Amino acid sequence: KYQALIGFRGSTTQALAARFQLYKFLTPGLECAKPSILLSEGTPTVPDSLSNWSLFRQKPARFLTNWLYQRRATDPTSPAEPIKDLITIVCISDTHNTQPALPDGDLLLHAGDLSQSGSFQEIQLQLDWLNSQPHKYKALIGGNHDLLLDPEFVDNFPQRILERPCTSRSDLKWGKIIYLNNNSVKLDFANGRSLNIYGSPLTKQFGTWAFQYPPIRDVWTNTIPLETDILLTHGPPKGYLDTDGLGSEFLLQEISHVRPRLVVFGHIHGGYGKEAVRFDGVQKAYDGVRFGEKGFTTVIWMAILIILQYLTIIIHFRGPKQGTEPTMMVNAAAVGGYKNQFSRPAITVEI
């Protein structure tokens, strides 16, 4: 109900009042707010002073870590030499039968949910559309809506697929598309560089869909090769572009261990965007507090680390270190809104 209400873009009095009442219930301390402060874009908001004070009263440690994180040093060490011949990667996900215009690039990645109901016809139309794109390489994974691509789902729920002659998974025409299903591929580019890509369609179970696993099960540890440059998953890691904690904590731990240059996902439509993440002490402290694992001692330690980062930049007493390059997280969900009525452009990244 919450997603339905905040996803509504209309401006009727009834809708605004309903959204306001729900937001009051979800956010204690807003009794004095008025419905007029709700944006027509579907995002509830309040004046900064009231919102910040309310958030601080509810979770002071988390509020302070958020404040510190926004003021962290974004370049704690001297930048390494710039990479020549950058590779342009176009990221898209959750197209759900839509066919948005895509920018040009060297590599096109689709992070799953090509279709809405997972039928042969829907998936084949999406494959045809992707094959028509000019990118040298095109790679994709399935998503929870792409039912036909999951053999286990087809076996367990044949009534959801309704296969007919010549409409099975083996009848799909992939063309030059690289399909990844818990495996890797190495791609060589004209500039002499190569990229290792690992793809997995797995997401935490919610309803009856494809490629799902029980949320308490760790399906990620030691599954992603250490040489992976790009990780392509359908679901997000916990805490990053996942609408505040809907992603997988085990996936986050594995990403922190492998540290690929780029992680592309979707699934949580509201998390659309990109974020550079450095898995350093500041990041570890930040995650520990916001996930409820650490307290005020960690907040103080985080503040000290941020001060040291700024001193490092000012004094220039250290050069670049191995492993300081950030991991770029990208939620490339192409549709949004309660009924997928809003469209977003593909996200382009250069590495």
From TrEMBL:
Keywords: Lyase, Membrane, Transmembrane, Transmembrane helix. Gene3D superfamilies: 3.60.21.10. It comes from the Eukaryota. The keyword Transmembrane applies. The chain crosses the membrane at residues 299-319. Residues 88-270 form the Calcineurin-like phosphoesterase domain. Pfam families: Metallophos (PF00149). The keyword Transmembrane helix applies. GO terms for molecular function: hydrolase activity; lyase activity. This is Putative rhamnogalacturonate lyase C. The gene is rglC_3.
